[in-house]
Model the fold of this input.
Amino acid sequence: MTARRLPTGGRIDRSRKVTVQFDGKPFVAHPGDSLASALLAGGQKITARSFKYHRPRGLMAAGVEEPNSLVHLRDGARHEPNAQATMVEVFDGLISTPQNAWPSLKFDIGSVNGALSRFFGAGFYYKTFIGPFKGTGFWMACEKIIRNAAGMGKATTLDDPDHYEKINAFCDVLIVGAGPAGLAAALAAGRKGDKVMLVEQDHELGGSLLSEGAGGESDTWLRNAVAELKNMPNVQVLSRTTAFGAYDSDVFGLVERFRDHLLVPEAGKPRQRYWLVRTKRAILATGAIERPMVFAGNDVPGVMLASAVRKYLNRYAVLAGESVVVATNNDSAYSTAIDLAKAGAKVILCDLRRTILDALSSRAKTAGVELRLGYGLLKAEGRGQVRGARIVPVDTNGRASGKEIAVKCDVVAISGGWAPALHLWSQRFGKPQYHQEFDAFLPMQKTTVTSVGSLVAAVSTAEAITQGYDAGGDAGKVDTVANGGDFWGRDLLPTTVITKADGTTPGKAFIDFQHDVKLADIDQAHLEGYVSVEHLKRYTTSGMAADQGKTSNLNALARMAALRGMDIPKVGTTTFRPPYTPIAIGAIVAHDHGLHFRPTRLSTIHDWHQQNGAEMIEAGAWLRPWYYPAKGETLRDTYIREAAHVRDHVGIVDVSTLGKIAVQGPDAAEFLNRVYANGFKTLPIGRLRYGVMLREDGFVLDDGATARLGENDYFMSTTTANAAKVLAQAEFLLQTAWRDLKVHVTTVTDQWAAIAIAGPKSRTVLTALTDADLSKEALPNNHLTYVTIAGVPCRLHRMSYSGELAYEIYIPAKSGPKVWRALIEAGVPHHLKPYGTEAMGALRIEKGHVAGAEIEGRTTMKDLGLEVFASSKKPFIGSVLRKRVVLEDATRPSLVGLEIVGDDGARAGSLLFGLNVPAKGHGEGWVSSTTYSPALKKNIALALLSKGPERIGETIQVVDFVGNQTLRAKVVSPHFFDPEGYRQNG
Done:
């Protein structure tokens, strides 16, 4: 392989030079080069090592179908693995390194696997490491080694310094592919006045036209088309953009590599953009991918697709070799052979067919190409590079029928036909149609998706352009270019496998180059019964690499069909799924990470909390005041002081984050009666009731209070964490199971600010501020009234979470700060202080109220001591399954209180064991919530303990294996403080 840069030609900017680096060596390139063309021009023969056998591999293709040349790009935080060298634009300072090779690309110790290849066939790990032994111990040990060897590149663990953008776009026509058909479609649609988006994965428009000789008729057409499109304000052209996914309702996902062609993106510029495009109709002009031929040594560096050899020659002015053997079964490779011969290469063309068009034969011979009709390529000779080939007469099945001939060459160019790139079409519509004359699957035309060009086997560039104009709207002039007379589908011989007369190959012949799947592996899978296409794919891993089988799928299907004696369509096709090519996770995530992953919700009183020294804590999507430290205070000091102050005086806490749902309609009471375990039909207007909600499986989902504001108007509150979950369940039930109920559920969480005021002086503060009669007789517990505070109409609920005399004030959200400040001012004579969620937690633990730590998805009403709330007079969600035997088991962990012995508090998650029981295993329960109680002057906890209520008075062990802590605790009632409720009901 003696590649070289030609002194003239190509579409590169020879006026400028850039230096790129590969494997520590510098290579001179020009703007317009790809990394692959720069390496080829610089004589780099081996670019990678194969996945399983670590065989030397070189460039095979020139586009997204490249299976071999995967490299690392850049270094440091911008390091990127598994980049296709064929798709990387050169830029000054580009650093690339080989992967999957150690200690070096030239000498890779992993190549020893090649000598052991007979043991590494399809499914070898199942048969080698599992079959001969009893149990799984040996396999588990080997699995670690196999997993360490898996994969190709290594990703960086450093934070990505670049940023990415997401864009939603809408258009009349989305055109994927800017080859001749796509450009023609864009011109026609643009001239009509349609809003057009033209998407091209390459950095240059033109597609197959870029592989034609520079300066010809096609260049003139291309130049005029691009110029006209750029002057159309209704046409948006996105180059360096891949349409990776096609979805229902004509939605497409795109990734634009906006600044990937620079060493570092400019300040403020995204590296990539993720586009979500909704279009009225789409035109797919995605082209076709050349199929390789299967023969011994078809992976040796220097064996390349014929179209790639031509592209390197005409686009990049790189002659891949001086002596080339072209092997084909169709007409398209003749253009490659002719162009190579004109560039000075010695060319032998082996065509499996015995007859071809006279015009094609004449063109080849005139150019100096040596034609060998009826010949196939039996083997490519060489290891680190092609040094020769063995060609042989063959029959129509690809089997040798004559004497082998050894020829010297440094490049082998192969063409086994073409496979239309119908991935996007298949993602949307499923199975395509097989066309025997083309030995290919083609898409069908759909109402809103039109396929054009090589995707539907257009016979010429002229026909592709005509199809594009028709699809775009057939507006304006229809310029075209002359036919090349090299259509691949004319008289194609559907044979790609070349073997000896006995059907074997004189060496390894590969189907999937990236995953090292050999022809013999497909044969072995067939022998072992893996004849389903999907089973074949998974057993051999053919088509499962990063290239998703772009060059291997059809050859694998054809081989299985031949082995089964069936036609290809009867064997079937694998399922195409997004993405079409690998895409960066960063592009999909864009700004949706860290604090931007979801909106951080703030109450309208948030600024006051920050201005007054509150330490904030995340609570679901919200930021809430955690504690308000005085100078020098720790968290523990602060929450103990705050909780004690509430018990002795009065405090206020911002509870705006509670979920709030308006339940309205004639059947609102019936709806609540079904979703809550306790009854709600009899709740009078002006009253509120604590309720428990279950999942269908009988476990507790959430708890909260619901107030009846009017005849058909209820106000439901939920915990902060479960607000969305409760709303989702309510909407699901109303839209599916209970469609007959006339009820609307609406989230009003953001419409209301909420403040809880608690403590023995809370009534005094509110009475002075509102002039309302809030006496025990006028407003008993679990009643509501309406008041005005600082000129703001508010709703006042008398209810307690802390166990103190307490109220909840619901305020129009924008007036929340005004009412909060009014409470602070009115409370000065009564020593009112704000308190945070940590003190609130301490107060609720003292009272024995359950919260998220207890309602964690595994507990029932019985477990939590809430069985008294479950109605026996009505069915409700979860009412049947909560009575399952396993949930009625008397030994289930149940809610208890723990008084910790000693000065150290227990840690949540600690396990519980009997006093004289070895602390092993999962214990008899666990600690759910823990605090220091200022009211009791001791450390306490809520816990779930097996047979809990029966063990009141027992002393147990509290063991934290992670923190290496063992304590003793006395089992008590979970209601530590004021169990009779005198304070909250006073």
Observations:
- The chain has 25 helices and 49 strands.
- The chain has a mean pLDDT of 93.
